[in-house]
Amino acid sequence: MSRENLTKNKFLNKTQTKEKEKQQQKLQCPSCKADIAEGDKFCADCGASIEGNHCPNCNALTYPGADICEACGEWLLPGKCRFCYSSIKPDDAFCPECGNPAMGIICPKCGTKNFFDFCKKCNTPLSESAQNAIRAAQQNPVLQDFLRLQFEAEKIKAEIEKNSPLPEPIKTPEQLKAEQEKAEKRAILLQIQALKEQNSTKKEVPTPAAKPKPLFSEEDKKRLDAAINRKKELEQKQQELINKLSSAQNQTFETPQQARCFYNANKPASNLMWECNYVHYVHPGPHDCARPDLGGKWIIDYGK
Predict the structure, then answer these.
(1) Which residues contact 303 (CB under 8 A, 6 or more apart)?
(2) I need a surface site. Which of 115, 127, 214, 285 has the fewest CB within 10 A?
(3) CB 242 within 8 A of CB 299
(4) Of residues 294, 292, 239, 236, the one with CA closest to residue 264
(5) Spatial separation of the C-alpha atoms in residues 272 and 147, rounded to whole Å
């Protein structure tokens, strides 16, 4: 073999090796999202089976029956409308069945491009199906109770911030007590220092330093404690209502998009995450889940 061919073969082998390594790095377990190597049949971290199809865009493993890739959001059903799954031609600007644009809908509120009935970023309804789903959700008594309690919780939170004798952020009674003790210790140290200075020059007895004024009165403390306890009760009630709402949402859906529309229409608050039933993975919303048609539930995200 000539030197030129040998160099060429080495270059090709090196390129293929890099491409293979790059491809392997993209593979993730569909259950726990851990990195896996090509050819593995089970995930080394969670033991889940990882045999299946791969996304044509990012090469990540995809779930059976999924319409999108959870890793990159790629549509996995070419030739089908992303909203109603009807057949659509490549040159069709709009779906002949549902009338939605083939290139997606731009949210008028936040400007995000969507292929969902609700905006994946701000949950704004974008289609006629979304409006119909909202009207149906407005008849849900559990959802209405949750919204009422949510409004009451926000009102109490505003009252706590307004009536608190302390600057933002609101501090607990334990934190207030610690600050008061710290202020008292500092006053004593200043008094001792003043005594030392006066004794070194004069023999006069110094005037005792005034006791620092409490950072909050007993009445303020009681009012703050009551408001904080009430807010905790409301949060617990909200979680109970979400559980009831989740049980009421156990329905069957023909398509994942139908499920996404339903769950987003019945989203009772903004500080929520969505846990799917398929692999019990917590998503920002059902729009990020590949199989929302198998059900799920909203859970409170206390980090928001």
Answers:
(1) none
(2) 214
(3) yes
(4) 292
(5) 13
CA angle (228, 233, 236) in 5-degree steps = 130
pLDDT reported for residue 103: 93
Burial of 116 (0-12, 13-18, 19+ CB in 10 A): buried
Question: Distance between CA atoms of 64 and 82, rounded to whole angstroms?
Answer: 17
Which residues partner with 105 through β-bridges?
114
Within 8 A by CB and 6+ apart from 79, the residues are 87, 88
- Digit-coded pLDDT (tens) for 171-199: 667 777 788 888 888 888 887 777 777 76
User: Are the C-beta atoms of 102 and 93 separated by less than 8 Å?
Assistant: yes
Judged against a pLDDT cut of 50, whether residue 22 lies above it is answered with no
CB atoms within 10 A of CB 29: 22
pLDDT confidence tier of residue 23, bands split at 50, 70 and 90? very low
CB 273 within 8 A of CB 301: yes
By residue count, the chain amounts to: 304
